[in-house]
Amino acid sequence: MSGYSSPHPPTDGHAPVPPPPGGYAAVPPDTVPPPPPPPPAAGRPGRRALVIGVVVLLLAAAGVAAWFLFFRQPPVPDPEPAAERLAAALQAGTPADVPLVLDTSASPDEQYAQVFEQLRAAVGEEAGTVTVADVTPVEEGDGGTATATATLAWSWPVATDTAWDYETVVRLSYPGATDGEAGEWAAAWDPGVLVPGLEPAERLAVERTEPARGEIVTTTGETLVGITPVHHVGIDKTRPGWDTAAPQLGTVLGLDQAATDDVAARVASAGEKAFVQVITIRDGDPEYDFDAAMAIPGVVGIPDEMPLARSRDFARSVLGTVGEATAEIIEESEGTVRQGDVVGVSGLQAAYDEQLRGVPGLAVTIEPAGEGDEGGASREAFTIEKQDGKPLVVTLDPATQLRAEAALADITDLASAIVAIRPSSGEVLAVASGPGSEGYNTATLGQYPPGSTFKIATSLAMIRSGVTPDTPLPCTPTIAVEGREFRNVPGYPASALGDAVPFRTVFANSCNTAFIAQHQSVTQQQLHDAAASLGLGVEATGFGAAGTMGDVPAEATGTEHAASMIGQGQVLATPLAMATVGASVAAGHTVSPWLVQPENGEAPEAPSGDLTAEEAATLRDLMGGVVREGSGTTLQDVPGIVGAKTGTAQFGDGSKAHVWMVAVTDDLAAAVFIEEGDLASTVAAPVMHEFLTNG
């Protein structure tokens, strides 16, 4: 000990630390360096071993992780997405777009095209669908490989509301991973993937069986439109003389120069082996010299059958025609009509085409690998039996229709029409549009002011307001309404003029001024209602074909209302509507005309009109006066004549007029319309007389 004495004795139980050699200066207590760590205590070697063990375990775990990361195979992927891609490729017709296992050098895409060529043509490009119905669980093999089986559901829309549905099975294989990267599922390719049981080089054949088109028949069973032998006459550019055939054929067929030039142009622009059709002639048609046409070099006639009416013009505008489906018809059919199909293109043929056309039959067969193969035979894959079209029943009476057409035959430069109805049943017996209508259905669609034939409806409104056949009315030469002057038709008999002329005489001679004088006593609404009671201006709900019943406004004032009283102004009617007015008067109740029999075979229900039998009897009496002493005396010799009404309606600047006549016999009501004429009594009345007496 050096004899140094510390002023601060130790308090931690340790001996004081001697100063370093040479001594040192005193250091404050809070700056004294910490003592060095004590040496390891004896008896603690396990702590070092624990640390070494932890390090070893960490290194081992890192090694295992590295092995899993770099050496273990990735998991087998789900095969279903691969099956979905295969189905999409098959639907698109390009199976080679997905991985395939092939045991042949044949192109899968070419095989697909060959197998389905005819079927796709029959149903339309890309019309079939392929979906995945099922995928079996994965079966893992050696080396990371795997297999599965997919079931594919195929559907081909081969007919309306009918599909060919079947399933095929395809084997899927997974090759394992490569360099740690997952592989792709591949499908084992064979023809059976396309059609069950299909062998290499086999294909599908499709045969379409056309149904017989339904006939249009009468309620008594007579055929109006039936299958008729025809010849398609045209110029065949493979025949000698074709280059000079057009003008000769035009002469034989009676074509004008413009039509002949059009034929020549079509022939010149057609392909070198084309057949250019010019006309279809029914066998035995007296209008054309078929033998003379066949004698022209380059002209041929291809035999065929078509649904045709009993003559070229018989009820043509209402029955309609058939022909090859146009691109527009095919598009609107949404797959039910194919190119080359014969369909209705106008009239009833078009309106009821689905019923008349029927459903084609279809046979899908598997054809053997090649011609001449021994033992090869076709195998049936799918069949639909054809369904022939159903007949359409109409109310037309052939004899009545022919009489109507004959009566209009000479009216070639003006639209004209005759409609005839059986009042007791509402059946439409004749719907004829004259040659001057140029194919338009004037009879049921042509709307014109009905003129004085509308006075039947005006008279009903007046009767409902208290007027009787004997009520005296003023019939003056002229009458003014709000500055507009109305007058009677030229030649109006002076004997029927006066300040107090009985209503029956006013009606018989069709005095315009007398009717207009009542415009303040009969409202426009009452006119509208009276017309509706007679079937005019209402919806033709049960008619069954294209037709309208005209229009009678419920609101009109001043001169427009005054004009309505005599069937002009805004009042419109069709020949069908005016024939219905006559039929309602004859029947004693509101008649709803019908042309097409409902599918249940029953006549449509009678309408709930409010025409009374008493009102109808009064109207019949008034119409009888027209024949006895008025503007319809032309019909006095018609058997069973009940009454009539003439009508003249000025149009344009007033110098031209539409002419009408409505007539009623025992159980027949008819309307005649001619687009232009001087007076109904001199123009329409003779046509009506011919119709009612001819035959």
TrEMBL record:
<dbReference type="InterPro" id="IPR012338">
    <property type="entry name" value="Beta-lactam/transpept-like"/>
</dbReference>
<feature type="transmembrane region" description="Helical">
    <location>
        <begin position="49"/>
        <end position="70"/>
    </location>
</feature>
<keyword id="KW-0472">Membrane</keyword>
<keyword id="KW-0378">Hydrolase</keyword>
<dbReference type="GO" id="GO:0071555">
    <property type="term" value="P:cell wall organization"/>
</dbReference>
<keyword id="KW-0732">Signal</keyword>
<dbReference type="GO" id="GO:0008800">
    <property type="term" value="F:beta-lactamase activity"/>
</dbReference>
<dbReference type="GO" id="GO:0046677">
    <property type="term" value="P:response to antibiotic"/>
</dbReference>
<dbReference type="InterPro" id="IPR050515">
    <property type="entry name" value="Beta-lactam/transpept"/>
</dbReference>
<dbReference type="GO" id="GO:0017001">
    <property type="term" value="P:antibiotic catabolic process"/>
</dbReference>
<keyword id="KW-0131">Cell cycle</keyword>
<comment type="similarity">
    <text>Belongs to the transpeptidase family.</text>
</comment>
<comment type="similarity">
    <text>Belongs to the class-D beta-lactamase family.</text>
</comment>
<keyword id="KW-0812">Transmembrane</keyword>
<dbReference type="GO" id="GO:0071972">
    <property type="term" value="F:peptidoglycan L,D-transpeptidase activity"/>
</dbReference>
<feature type="domain" description="Penicillin-binding protein transpeptidase">
    <location>
        <begin position="417"/>
        <end position="692"/>
    </location>
</feature>
<dbReference type="Pfam" id="PF00905">
    <property type="entry name" value="Transpeptidase"/>
</dbReference>
<dbReference type="InterPro" id="IPR036138">
    <property type="entry name" value="PBP_dimer_sf"/>
</dbReference>
<keyword id="KW-1133">Transmembrane helix</keyword>
<keyword id="KW-0132">Cell division</keyword>
<dbReference type="GO" id="GO:0008658">
    <property type="term" value="F:penicillin binding"/>
</dbReference>
<dbReference type="InterPro" id="IPR001460">
    <property type="entry name" value="PCN-bd_Tpept"/>
</dbReference>
<dbReference type="InterPro" id="IPR005311">
    <property type="entry name" value="PBP_dimer"/>
</dbReference>
<protein>
    <recommendedName>
        <fullName>Beta-lactamase</fullName>
        <ecNumber>3.5.2.6</ecNumber>
    </recommendedName>
</protein>
<dbReference type="GO" id="GO:0005886">
    <property type="term" value="C:plasma membrane"/>
</dbReference>
<feature type="domain" description="Penicillin-binding protein dimerisation">
    <location>
        <begin position="209"/>
        <end position="364"/>
    </location>
</feature>
<dbReference type="Pfam" id="PF03717">
    <property type="entry name" value="PBP_dimer"/>
</dbReference>
<feature type="compositionally biased region" description="Pro residues">
    <location>
        <begin position="30"/>
        <end position="42"/>
    </location>
</feature>
<feature type="region of interest" description="Disordered">
    <location>
        <begin position="1"/>
        <end position="44"/>
    </location>
</feature>
<dbReference type="InterPro" id="IPR002137">
    <property type="entry name" value="Beta-lactam_class-D_AS"/>
</dbReference>
<keyword id="KW-0046">Antibiotic resistance</keyword>
<dbReference type="GO" id="GO:0051301">
    <property type="term" value="P:cell division"/>
</dbReference>
